[in-house]
Amino acid sequence: MKELDFDYLYKKYAHLLPSKDRDIYLLREAIFGYSEIRQYLENINGKVLEVGCGPGLLLNELSDIFPQNSYLGVDPFISSYEKFSNIFDSVNKVKFMKAKIEDFETTEKFDLIFSINVCEHVESWKSYIDKTQSLLSPNGISIILCPTYDLPYETHVIIPIIINKDITFKIFEKKIRAYEENLGIQGNWESVNFIKARHVKKYIQNKYDSKFDLYIHDRLFNRFTHDNFFLERHGILGKFCQFLYKIKLNRLIFNFLKIPFPYMKLEIKNFLK
To answer: What integer pLDDT is reported at residue 199 of this predicted model?
Structure first.
């Protein structure tokens, strides 16, 4: 199966993207997303929906690697990606629609629905889950990858959470705004809903056929060993995580001691019978 690497994506897309920091972030996250989604596409010959598709980098690559599928990207901020219009113009095998997933209406059913670092920004993660499940085909699967806030740690800005969201903002306002300005994502902090994996588990456990990936932490810790941008973003904590991974202590902490990990990968199939 084809691998995506940074040099390949940078050569392909860099001239279309507007800023270096934003370029690197988008390309690195596309690589991460591909590594987590590709296994589901190997055995699908149908319809794929990405929620919060941004400029469509990942969908473009998926449509080349798995051309047997049709692809749709939904994002409420597509108009704000006008500076990425060259990318959209180059994607002729993928359709895009400007809409919040909660307001998205269609008669189509999808074999795979996925979102990457989106569910922590929706107005209601419960509504998000219910809506995406209603769009699944009978044998379809929905994949949610997103930061969680069971631990007092904010993974976008890389700051501790002090008591609650408001107090954290007052303490770290300068750093939060600098992060948003650097990536051109003003208002990012206001959209974060502080989703918690334990609340999600409680909501879906008697409703949907679902499974949390217990080893997502292992793959993210491994990312510190080869993704220098990811490592640098997390500073000293990144170095510490790199060390934990090398001695396999992360498995003891998160699998055996059951300490919550600030990121989740959730697979949801359909309603329990």
So the answer is: 97
CATH code of the region 6-150+192-215+260-271: 3.40.50.150
Q: What is the 3-state secondary structure (H, E, C) of the chain?
A: CCCCCHHHHHHHHHHHCCCHHHHHHHHHHHHHHHHHHHHHHCCCCCEEEEECCCCCHHHHHHHHHCCCCEEEEEECCHHHHHHHHHHHHHCCCEEEEECCHHHCCCCCCEEEEEEECCCCCCCCHHHHHHHHHHCEEEEEEEEEEEECCCCCEECCCCEECCCCHHHHHHHHHHHHHHHHHHHCCCCHHHHCCCCCHHHHHHHHCCCEEEEECCCHHHHHHHHCCCCHHHHHHCHHHHHHHHHHHHCCHHHHHHHHCCCCCCEEEEEEEEECC
Q: Is the pLDDT of residue 62 over 70?
A: yes
Other CB atoms within a 10 A radius of the CB of residue 144 amount to 26
Q: Quick one: average pLDDT of 238-260? A: 91
